[in-house]
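Summary for the steering committee. One of the milestones for this cycle was to obtain a three-dimensional model of the protein with iron/sulfur cluster bound, which we needed before selecting residues for the alanine scan. The sequence and ligand used are listed below.
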Amino acid sequence: MKDHPIFLKPWGGIRAQDWHDWKWQFNNSLAAPAHWAGGINGSASQHKGLLAVTEIYPFRVTPYYLALMDSSDQADPLRRQCFPDLQEIHFSLGGVDDPLEEWRDMPVPGLIHRYADRCLIMATNVCAMYCRHCNRKRLWGGSQSGGTQAHLQPMIAYIRQRKEIREVIISGGDPLTLSDRALARMLESLRAIEHVEVLRIGSRIPVVMPMRITPALCKMLRKYRPLWFNTQFNHPREITPDAARACEMLLEAGIPVSNQSVLLRGVNDSYEVMRDLLYGLQRISVRPYYLFQCDPVRGTDHFRVDLRQGLEIMEKLWCNVSGLCMPRYVVDLPGGRGKLPLQPFSCVENDALVKSLFSPLLPGGDEGEGIPDEVVKVEVSTFF
Ligand code: SF4
């Protein structure tokens, strides 16, 4: 834990056992602007501006995550993910609250059914940390909801009637902010539906509050396998011994852990940072699954990376990094039209080499005659 006296002041003298207790971390999360304003470089008017941001998009960060960052450096990639930024309310930059139009595919409150064979339930609207780039930031700040029978029952009733749903994704907010008991109740109800074969939890908890992954939680979760777990590491510095242990505990409980990063300007928009992140994930046996293009959500424009830059990073990764480390780079098409995988065009610029790779596979001879130009342009990175 780094020493940040200003920020750790509210918790001065805490015992190690408290620090490692997720309830202590959750209950002592920083949410009150008064706690952090004094520690941020900047003028009084800047502080006032930041308070205005939090009135629209609340602030919340765990002491654990706070201790990982250099909070005095405004460009710190971890700080950028959790500290308010005036650019969030520069709405003239564009973006909409719900670019994926999730409301269109919401037959009952809190349940999104977009793809026939799976649906997503928003188990709660509470998170341990409010990530500034979140594509559901429109839901923050309302009254807390989720985890109750009244919230759950209509969703369960819908899933029960739709026999084509074989996988249910439990998301949020962050479902692991619920108690073990509330979570077990939810999993139990879903597991009791015969046609639901697979459950999946989407949670950033291993990254922002890894002490939530307790032996008791893992023991409970393993009862509901096949259960998959997706998390969101965005920067190599987030892969700490605590985070690694949390993932290992899930893996030891028979729960595969995958990672869905978001490509974020000033956080991971370089080949070197992304490479180190992917290597780090592989070291802790977490599968790099998706790299998401940041959605055009209102209040996140300053995080968005040009698609061409994203493709350049992917191309360099394809050429240099083990295939086991490679995520799929995808963009969620606005309007709820689904995920589109993006591939670098080629990591071999030499046409002759491309032809020599393809010619044994196609009629036309060793010279590659008859191979249409578009084939030469096709990405050949799958060969590496
Ligand atoms: S934990 Fe997930 S849902 Fe919550 S703010 Fe972060 S990205 Fe959004």
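Key point for the committee: Residues 102-342 form a domain with the TIM Barrel fold (CATH 3.20.20.70).
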